[in-house]
Amino acid sequence: MSTAAATQHIFLDKQHPAVWRALNGLGLKVREAADAAGIDRKTIELLNVRTSQLNGCAYCLDMHVRDAVEAGESHQRLAVLPAWRETALFTDKERAALALAECITELPDHRARELDEGFARQHLSADEFSVVSWLVITMNAFNRVSVTSHHPVRRDR
After folding, report:
1. Which CATH superfamily is domain 16-149 in?
2. Is there a contact between 123 and 90 (Cβ–Cβ < 8 Å)?
3. Residue 144 has pLDDT above 60, yes or no
4. Most CB within 10 Å of its CB: which of 9, 77, 81, 132?
5. Does the structure show a pLDDT above 60 at 43?
6. DSSP conformation class of 130
7. pTM of the full predicted structure?
């Protein structure tokens, strides 16, 4: 294999478009479930941004920060999102969803998972807990596709 071929990025979504469409289909189904469970778009985008921060996915961060602002999220809350535990700017329900998002993304030890899941269960219904879990699981999959593919972030014009 040549050096050029070894350094050329393979866009997974382009290489296997049917698989990419299936992942997008999952994303749409999860969005429908979130709507049915009453999870608003701002909360969905907070979860997408926080998950993408944890995974270091620049492409998804670029997209979902824009989506969050479009959904009415404040620049202040987005700026402090990595330190959400240190501020009172987030509701108990949002904090529960963020704790669950971090737990699912980072997969900490059993005790830490129990604590975060317990906190989430105090503030989220079973339906909300499930939907938040699916939102985060799906965002993790999108992050991994973009990070592995080296999807570029384009400069604003």
Report:
1. AhpD-like (1.20.1290.10)
2. no
3. yes
4. 132
5. yes
6. H
7. 0.94
Pick from 34, 39, 53: which is nearest to 93 by CA?
Answer: 39
First to last CA, the chain: 37
> Percent of the chain scored above 70 by pLDDT?
96
d(CA 45, CA 117): 20
CA-CA distance, 12 to 19, in Å (whole number)?
Answer: 9
Q: What is the dihedral sign for C-alpha 77, 81, 84, 87?
A: negative
Mean pLDDT of the chain: 96
Q: Would you give the DSSP letter of residue 113?
A: H
Domain positions in the chain = 16-149
What's residue 46's pLDDT? 98
pLDDT of 103 higher than 70: yes
Give the tokens for residue 137. 């699981």
Q: Where are the alpha helices (DSSP H) in the chain?
A: 3-7, 12-15, 17-37, 41-55, 58-70, 75-80, 92-106, 110-123, 126-149
